[in-house]
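ingest -> validate -> predict -> emit
validate: passed (alphabet ok, no gaps, 90 aa)
predict: started
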Amino acid sequence: MQLARVTGTITATAKSAQLVGAKMLICDVMDTHGAIMEAACIAIDTVGAGVGDQVLVVRGSAARMALQANVAPVDAAVIAIVDTITVKAK
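emit:
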């Protein structure tokens, strides 16, 4: 799992049949201090997240499992909306 912030949405009228009805989100993967480690990861939303939310993203087969669709062409999925992050000071 990776921590990310939702920065936008994507609308695609022409897409794979397995993605019909799926909400696509643009997410910036970040560390626990908010520094962006990877910009513009595209993930399928499974929890109703929105722009500005901090979320957990899974990739690969875990993303397909989150969608319960082993044949869907999905590489990343949002599986949780983060309420709080606590990091122990060094």
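Strands lie at 2-10, 24-30, 36-45, 54-59, 76-81.
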